[in-house]
Amino acid sequence: MAASKGRKAPDQLVFLLSLVPYLLEQRVVDVATAAEHFGVAESDVRDAVRLIATSGLPGATGTYQANDLFDIDWDSFEDDGVIVIVHHVAIDDAPRLSAREAAALIAGLQYLSATPENAGRAQLDSLLAKLTAGASSTPTRLAVAESEADATLEVARRAVAEGRQLEFDYRNALGEQARRRVDPLRIASLGPDWYLQAFDHVRDDLRNFRVDRMSGLVVSDLPVDDHSDRVLSDTLFHGSDTDLDVVVDVAPEALPLIADYLADAREERVGDRLRVTLRVAHHHGLKRLVAGLPGLVTVVEPPEARAVVADWAAAGLAAYEV
């Protein structure tokens, strides 16, 4: 075992800060077991326990009374080498999550647990248990339902992991649908949307496919081709000669959210907004972008782009009319 000789002060502090929660969780533990757990000498554990027993939090008078200090079972410690903390202070005064906060975090962890790469991870189960125990009251039970997009994402992830070709029906932003055969290379996300980055055998080039527009997925027995000569960019979207420029006014705080669409870095202040130029594959792609940032993005020009967004919004509003 490692001895404390030569240990730096920060390491000693980390050891002490870790030892107290460990002892409280174990309730009863012998010196040898604690020393093995932390990889230190038994003498280090004994010295640390004695130091803990002189630690505490002064009362209202600014002085230490009997109940203001940690206390241990000294007979068990000195005679049998067993550590039992019989009184602790300040630990329970730490801020605790509310039941609603804990429930929200638990729901998020349940969603992560459902993804293939996190399935069966003991660390997530342990964290779920700690969140439940550490809340100020019992968290509300929430169930995270799997959506159709979640099931599609799982199949796409499996194809990437196994290195096999994937076939699916794809509906683009114009509503056009076609059967595609691709070599899946990577799963990426942009905001709330998931994308499959793949080599499209029909287009003979790399393409990005939005997962919620994919259906009828079939994982082929054919392995993916070698694409080691191709570089997958960290940016999902890239410009092309057919892209269209659209001028929009955007709230400054929302500008980072549309950074991937910016045609250049030029900005013009117009009142409390910034006027920038976006580059999109087609005007229909603006509908989801504007809807995802309600009140934060306004299409200025060209007229065709304004008309596409206005007609789409009007159609949505009409659906609510009695």
From TrEMBL:
Domain WCX, first and last residues per copy: 244-315
InterPro entries named among the record's database cross-references: CBASS_pafABC_assoc_protein, PafC-like, PafC_HTH, WCX_dom, WYL_dom
- Pfam families hit by this protein: HTH_PafC, WCX, WYL
Q: Where is the PafC HTH domain?
A: 11-133
Q: Which intervals hold domain WYL?
A: 152-217
- Protein's UniProt name: WYL domain-containing protein
